Amino acid sequence: MLDRPLSPPPVEVIVAVTQALHCEARLLDNEDFDGWLAMLDEDICYRMELKSRRFRADRSPPLPVGPGVIFNEDLGRLKLRVDRLKSGFVWAEDPPNFIRRAISNVEVVARPAENEVRVHSVLIMHRNRIDGTTRVLTAARTDLWRGEGQAWLLVARDIVLDHSVLPDSNLNAFF
Amino acid sequence: MRFERIGREPDYSRYMDLKEGWLDRRIFSDADIYEEELYRIFARSWLFVAHESQIPKAGDFLTTHMGEDAVIVARQADGSIRVMLNSCPHRGNKVCFADAGNTRRFVCNYHGWAFDTAGDLKGMHEEYCYDDGDIDFKNHGLKNVAKVSSYKGLVFATFNGDAPSLEAWLGDFRWYLDMILDNEEGGTEFIGGCIKSVMSANWKFGVENFIGDAYHAGWTHDSGCRSMNDGMPFPPIDMENSYHASVNGHGWEFGTEGVGDLVLLGRPKVMDYYNKIRPKMAERLGEMRSKIFGSVASASIFPNVSFLPGISTFRQWQPKGPMQFELKTWVIVNKNMPDDIKEEVTKGVMQTFGPGGTFEMDDGENWENCTTVNRGVVTRHERLHYRCGIGRQIEHDTLPGIVYRGQYNDANQRGFYQRWLDMMTHDDFSKMPTRPEPRLGNVAETRDLPGLFAL
Ligand code: FES
Ligand SMILES: [Fe+2]
């Protein structure tokens, strides 16, 4: 899919997509997972790839079966994760962790189709766990959003986590 | 009651009674005990450093740790592998900050001393400042470890010149290891990189969980299991036909039904693949091992490597202080698998036991809170219970090692802490007891074992 550059992007689109990103963060912070799932396109592709530290001059070939991925989820898999969280058997989340997401650097960069936009954003996730410890994670996201009538749906999200060593024991949260 | 602080040479047998089945909580947080572990266990054991497939070509390297010592693992032009301290002999700076890659030289950032991939000092910035006699290049390379050896793709190294051969170190555990390393022609490889995460927990909690703690799975992972299996809880364990086996502190707990872990992986194509090769596996490793492979199982290699055969996550618990470790995880697959099956395995591992996996997410906080809460000044003097299944030891015709019946058991954990105690206690490596007496003896290849074992 070839991206046509967008300059300047239409203001209504920027506003609508930014609102969608903020709304999504609020739904997740409030554990309204069904509300969040309703914002996803049925063909959602949700990925987080691994980063490793290499020398800038290192030209050795990439790994044979692609880089490792932490998340590579479709809608079914995301629903499964939500079902797990809602199952009432997730001891590590009971009492709940407090999670707050701040979204920033929203940049609508391209319009691959009439009703689609490519969007960069930055996520800062503040996670206060049941044992009182706090972890802060940051990530960059590149999304594809599609306008369907009044709503915007998330079609694809590529997440790049800014940590070569995860500073937490798990990634029990959506980014 | 007296709350004593531990001196430098305590009698470590005070911290456990494995015949009775208890441990002292101080071994999970005490700074002095931890320091001694670095000296007596990590500086003297064979430690996993790489899989051969991670550094296939000359000049390929990766960086890792042996205990808390940073090392470089590098493939040489002649195909051999060298392991050396990742610390410059000039002022000690770290020489290589990359995780992995390919290079001809490691050049230190501080004053530009340059080393080849064998660790030999080759030159430096402004070399003229050293007069004749100031420096002997031959003695100022990166310090190589005492021994490097491979077992079926896994590369181990040790700082201990007196360590027994790697084969002897692994001993009869090779019979079990071959189920993951040699279940198909062509051996194994790591694919897709390494995930690192840091946990505020003592390293032993990770190892002991994988060495024998099947017991936690049905409770801790209830939510993950139900979400992966249409709301069904963890399948009941067959206590008659499942086992713990312990060899020199290594341990493998397993069922014999052949499918449990493959079901948990949640990738039907992978299950089909193993079902297809299973008859061949039986010819190769014997009927028994072909039935163990794929069942609900977990294992650890002493001191700090663990894996789930069948689910294919492979990991190392790197100590970073008494109350912290860095967990490194990889995906291990059979080299001869078609690419789409390898891809399926990778997906399955990430979805189950990656840091965002439906099972992995339940574990970390338990280990972290076992560590921090055990440290309370009064709490630390209470004993922990390790007595589960203490009367269920059996002699088994086919299974080597110290074998206990019933997968829900603390037997392998007791075996692990027994080895821990042996290493903390014995100065002389040659006096260290072998537990149990080996059956395999000098058999080089467990596939060639007498019929008894191949059953
Ligand atoms: S510390 Fe490495 S060159 Fe000086
Ligand atoms: Fe677990």
In short:
Chain A: Its EC number is 1.14.12.19. By secondary structure, chain A is an alpha+beta fold.
Q: Can you give a write-up of this model?
A:
The complex is a heterodimer of chains A (175) and B (455). With 175 residues, chain A is α+β, with helices and mostly antiparallel strands. Chain A has one domain: Roll (Nuclear Transport Factor 2, Chain: A). In chain A, 21% of the residues lie in helices and 41% in strands. Chain A has a six-stranded mixed beta sheet with strand order 2-1-6-5-4-3. The relative contact order of chain A is 0.22. By secondary structure, chain B is an alpha+beta fold. Chain B has two domains: 47-149, Rieske [2Fe-2S] iron-sulphur domain (Rieske Iron-sulfur Protein); 171-431, Naphthalene 1,2-dioxygenase Alpha Subunit, Chain A, domain 1, CATH 3.90.380. Chain B is 28% helix and 24% strand. Chain B has helices spanning 31-42, 166-170, 173-181, 203-212, 217-220, 222-228, 260-265, 268-285, 287-292, 339-353, 360-374, 411-425, 451-454; strands at residues 16-17, 22-24, 47-51, 60-66, 69-75, 81-85, 100-102, 105-107, 114-116, 121-123, 147-151, 154-158, 188-199, 243-247, 250-254, 297-301, 305-307, 313-319, 325-334, 383-385, 393-394, 402-405. In chain B, the strands form five sheets. Chain B has a nine-stranded antiparallel beta sheet with strand order 13-19-18-17-16-15-14-22-21, sandwiched between helices. Chain B has a four-stranded antiparallel beta sheet with strand order 6-5-4-7, with no helix packed on it. In chain B, strands 1-2-20 form a three-stranded antiparallel beta sheet, with no helix packed on it. In chain B, α4 (203-212) crosses α12 (411-425). The model of chain B is unreliable at 1-5 and 451-455 (pLDDT under 50). Chains A and B meet through β2, α3 and β7 of A and β7, β13, α6, α10 and α11 of B. β7 (165-166) of chain A pairs parallel with β13 of chain B. Fe (ii) ion binds next to loops of chain B. FE2/S2 (inorganic) cluster (FES) is lined by residues 88, 90-91, 93, 108, 110-113 of chain B. Chain B: Belongs to the bacterial ring-hydroxylating dioxygenase alpha subunit family. Chain B: It comes from Novosphingobium marinum. Chain B: Keywords: 2Fe-2S, Aromatic hydrocarbons catabolism, Dioxygenase, Iron, Iron-sulfur, Metal-binding, NAD, Oxidoreductase. Chain B: It is an enzyme of class 1 (oxidoreductase). Chain B: Its EC number is 1.14.12.-.
